[in-house]
C-alpha cells in the first residue's frame, strides 16, 4: 500500500484533494497481462499472476514469517479509487487444493481513512467452506456484522460475484452481493465504512476513499497447516465508480468493456445516436433516449484517463476529426488504438455527469448544442466547465435484446394471454394469474437476462405471488411451463 500512501502525502502537502475521476476498469486477461492491475500485499514465493488467461493467486504456508505481506496473494488496480459508491464484478474459482476448514479474505472494500489508518470496510471471506461477508460501520473495528452469503461454496467451479456498496455515516449506506445472478446479501440504510467525520455523508477528508482488492488474504495464521498451499483463480474483473453499475460489472458478459448510453444533461430525453449500422464519416446526432443498439456505446480504456467509445456491434468509434474547431463534426470512424481523434478525457462535471475532452485538441469537447431534438447534430465546441451542453450522463446498459430488436415470434410469445402478471413494472411483489394455463405439471421459473435461473416454484393453484424485493433493478424473463408448452413474459423490476 506504499504507493497509495505517497499519493496521500503529496495531496496533503499541496493543500489539494487529488481523488481520481470516476472510472471503469475491465480486464478478461486474455492478452496474458495483469495490467492495469498489479500485485499488492504479496511477497515471493506467493504470487498473483496471469496463467492461461486468468489470474492465479498462489499462497504457501512455508512463506509465512509473521508479516502482513506473507499472508497475502493479492492484486489491486493501478491508480483507481472510488469515493462514495462503487461496484466490483469478477469470476472466482477455488482451486482443488483449497482447504475447507480454513478462513481467508478473497475480496476487500479497502478504505483509506487517515494518513495513519487504512483497513478493510468489508471483507468477503471463505470460512469453513462457506462464502461469508464481514462489514464494519462508523470508524471502528468493533461491532462487525457477519453473514453467510453462500453455504458450501463449491471448489473447482467458476462462480460469478457482483458487489455493490455505498459508504455512509448517517444510516444511508448499502451493501449488496449477487452470486451467479442471484441476490445473496442485501443490507440497506446502514452505517458503512470509516465515515464518522463526514457531515451528512459529504466527504470532508482527503483520506476517505476506497480501493477494491482481490486475491487471498490468509489471516488465519493460528490455523495454518505445515506446507499447505491455497490457490484461487480470478477472471473477468470489472471495477466501476458510480451508480447503476450492475450490467457494467456483470462478469457473465465475459469481462467485456462497459456499455453506456450517453445522455445529455440538460435534455435527458435525448442521447448520442450513431445511426443504423456504421461507416466512416457517419454523423453522430441526438435521438430519443431509448434502449437501442444505435444509442449504446462500449467504453474502451486507452490509459491515462482517456477512453474511446465504440458503437455496439460495430467496429466504429466516436471520432472528432483532425485538430479542433467550433462546430467541427463528430462522427463514426473505424476504431484504432492509436488514433487520438478517438481518445476522450473523462472530466467529472458532478452528479454523475462527465465532459468528454478531445485528447489532441484539449480546447474542445463534445457538445450537443442547445436543448434537444431528434437528429440534432453533435459537434466539437470550445471546452467549458459550466455549459451543460457538454455534460453527459453515463447510463449503464446491458447488451440484451431491446424491444426494437426482438423477432415477431418473441413478441407474440411475450404478449401471450395464457397467463397474466401484475404489476409490471414491479417494485416488490409480482402477482401471476395462470388462467387456463395451469395443470398438474405447471412450474414457474424466473431468469436473468443472461439466462441464469434465479428461482423456480411449483404452483398449487391458479394464482402465485413472487417476492422480487431483493432483486436489482432491470429486465427479467418469467417462464411458465405446463405439460404441453412453455411461454415467457418480460418482467421489469424497478
Automatic annotation (TrEMBL):
Signal peptide positions (record): 1-22
Entry keyword Signal: yes
UniProt-listed InterPro entries: Ricin_B-like_lectins, Ricin_B_lectin, Secre_tail
Domain Secretion system C-terminal sorting intervals: 421-492
Keywords: Signal
Superkingdom assignment: Bacteria
Annotated organism of origin: Flavivirga jejuensis
Ricin B lectin domain sequence ranges: 262-392
Protein name (Swiss-Prot/TrEMBL): T9SS type A sorting domain-containing protein
Amino acid at each position: 500500500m506504499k504507493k497509495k500512501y505517497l499519493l496521500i502525502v503529496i495531496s496533503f502537502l499541496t493543500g489539494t484533494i487529488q481523488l481520481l475521476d470516476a472510472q471503469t476498469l475491465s480486464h478478461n486477461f486474455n492478452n496474458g497481462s495483469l495490467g492495469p492491475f498489479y500485485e499488492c500485499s504479496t511477497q515471493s514465493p506467493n504470487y498473483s499472476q496471469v496463467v492461461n488467461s486468468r489470474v492465479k493467486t498462489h499462497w504457501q504456508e512455508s512463506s509465512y514469517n509473521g508479516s502482513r505481506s506473507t499472508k497475502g496473494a493479492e492484486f489491486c488496480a493501478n491508480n483507481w479509487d472510488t469515493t462514495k459508491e462503487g461496484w466490483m464484478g469478477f469470476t472466482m474459482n477455488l482451486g482443488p487444493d483449497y482447504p475447507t476448514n480454513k478462513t481467508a479474505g478473497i475480496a476487500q472494500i479497502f478504505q483509506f481513512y487517515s494518513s495513519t489508518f487504512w483497513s478493510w470496510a468489508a471483507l468477503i471471506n471463505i470460512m469453513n467452506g462457506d462464502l461469508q461477508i464481514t462489514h464494519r460501520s462508523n470508524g471502528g473495528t468493533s461491532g462487525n456484522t457477519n453473514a453467510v452469503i453462500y453455504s458450501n461454496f463449491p471448489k473447482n467451479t467458476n462462480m460469478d460475484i457482483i458487489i455493490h456498496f455505498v459508504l455512509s455515516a448517517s444510516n444511508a449506506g448499502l451493501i449488496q452481493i449477487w452470486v451467479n445472478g442471484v441476490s445473496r446479501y442485501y443490507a440497506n440504510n446502514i452505517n458503512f465504512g470509516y465515515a464518522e467525520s463526514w457531515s451528512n455523508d459529504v466527504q470532508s477528508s482527503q483520506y476517505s476513499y476506497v480501493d477494491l482488492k482481490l486475491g487471498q488474504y490468509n489471516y488465519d495464521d493460528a490455523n495454518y497447516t505445515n506446507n499447505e498451499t491455497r490457490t484461487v483463480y480470478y477472471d473477468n474483473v470489472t471495477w466501476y465508480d458510480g451508480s447503476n453499475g450492475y450490467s457494467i460489472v456483470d462478469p457473465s458478459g465475459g469481462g467485456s468493456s462497459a456499455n453506456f448510453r450517453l445522455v445529455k444533461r440538460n435534455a435527458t430525453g435525448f442521447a448520442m445516436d450513431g445511426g443504423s449500422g456504421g461507416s466512416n464519416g457517419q454523423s453522430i446526432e441526438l435521438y430519443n433516449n431509448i434502449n437501442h443498439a444505435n444509442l449504446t456505446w462500449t467504453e474502451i480504456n486507452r490509459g491515462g484517463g482517456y477512453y474511446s467509445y465504440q458503437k455496439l456491434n460495430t467496429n466504429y468509434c466516436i471520432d472528432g476529426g483532425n485538430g479542433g474547431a467550433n462546430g467541427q463534426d463528430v462522427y463514426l470512424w473505424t476504431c484504432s488504438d492509436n488514433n487520438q481523434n478517438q481518445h476522450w478525457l473523462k472530466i467529472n462535471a458532478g452528479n454523475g455527469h462527465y465532459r468528454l475532452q478531445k485528447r489532441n485538441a484539449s480546447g474542445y469537447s463534445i457538445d450537443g448544442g442547445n436543448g434537444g431534438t431528434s437528429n440534432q447534430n453533435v459537434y466539437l465546441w470550445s471546452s467549458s466547465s459550466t455549459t451543460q451542453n457538454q455534460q453527459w450522463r453515463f447510463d449503464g446498459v446491458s447488451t440484451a435484446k431491446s424491444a426494437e430488436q426482438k423477432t415477431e415470434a418473441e413478441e407474440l410469445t411475450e404478449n401471450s394471454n395464457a397467463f397474466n402478471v401484475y404489476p409490471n413494472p414491479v417494485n416488490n411483489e409480482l402477482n401471476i394469474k395462470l388462467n387456463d394455463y395451469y395443470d398438474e405439471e405447471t412450474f414457474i421459473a424466473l431468469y436473468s437476462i443472461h439466462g441464469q435461473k434465479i428461482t423456480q416454484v411449483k404452483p398449487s393453484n391458479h394464482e402465485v405471488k413472487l417476492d422480487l424485493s431483493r432483486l436489482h433493478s432491470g429486465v427479467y424473463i418469467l417462464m411458465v411451463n405446463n405439460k404441453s408448452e412453455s411461454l415467457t413474459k418480460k418482467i421489469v423490476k424497478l
